[in-house]
Each structure stands twice: as C-alpha cells, then as structure tokens.
Amino acid sequence: MSSFVYMMSDKPRGVIYIGVTSDLHGHVWEHRNEGHKGFTERYRAKNLVWFETHPNIVLAIQREKSLKRYVREWKIKLIEGLNLTWMDLDERIDEIESVYRPHPNTRQWSDYN
C-alpha cells in the first residue's frame, strides 16, 4: 500500500506543516473538517500544497523526518517545483504523479524499484 508525505499551508509562502499518511484524501479531509488539534488548527494550514508517494509507511516516515530538518527555503523549492502557485491540490491528488525517487547511489534506491 502506498504512503504519502505531504505539506499543508495557509497561503502561498505561509506556514508549512509536514505530515505522513497512508490515506491522503482522508487525512486532508480531517485537517479541514475535524480541526486537528495543535499546529494545523492553530495556524489554519488547510491547503494541500505538496505531496509525494512512497511504496510503504516506513520509507514515508523516514522521508518526513528528513524533510522536517530541511531549511524553509528548501521546502519552498520543493513545493514550487510541483505547485508554483501554491494552489490547493486536494481535488487533483489522483491526477498528479509525484513519486519520490532517491538518488541512485543511496542505499534506499532498491526500495523504490
């Protein structure tokens, strides 16, 4: 089963929340409708602005932890590489192919092929 790492925001170049899930549609719905306590509720990060697909939850969690260590400007470059205008991608999840590919020289390469 595929898993996803995703970023939510309140507006272009606004706050950025990074999460991981195996049900992207459902998780985005929860962020919007059930008022996730904590960061997303406090900062109103309800727009899905970026996501990528991973073959399993373990690899997705590893990537999420890595992204959280990135400096803000790198996160913005990732978002704008997929979604230049920071539009809400919720309606287009199934139309967009955003599969993570590690560098071929990393030990994770075989996990993605």
What report would you give on this structure?
With 113 residues, this protein is α+β, with helices and mostly antiparallel strands. It has a single domain (3-112), classed as GIY-YIG endonuclease. The chain is built from four helices and three strands, in the order E-E-H-H-E-H-H. The chain has helices at 24-33, 39-43, 57-69, 72-82, and strands at residues 3-9, 16-21, 47-54. Strands 2-1-3 form a three-stranded antiparallel beta sheet, sandwiched between helices. Strand 1 (3-9) and strand 2 (16-21) form a beta hairpin. The longest helix is centred in the middle third of the chain and has 13 residues, at 57-69. The model has no long low-confidence stretch (mean pLDDT 90).
Sequence-ordered SSE layout with sheet pairings:
Layout: E1 3-9, E2 16-21, H1 24-33, H2 39-43, E3 47-54, H3 57-69, H4 72-82
Antiparallel strand pairs: 1-2, 1-3
Second CATH tier, the architecture: 3-Layer(aba) Sandwich
| Approximate shape | globular
CA-CA gap between termini: 15 Å
Overall average residue pLDDT: 90
Task: Look at the helices and sheets and give the structural class.
Answer: alpha+beta
CATH topology annotation? GIY-YIG endonuclease
Largest sheet report: 3 strands, antiparallel
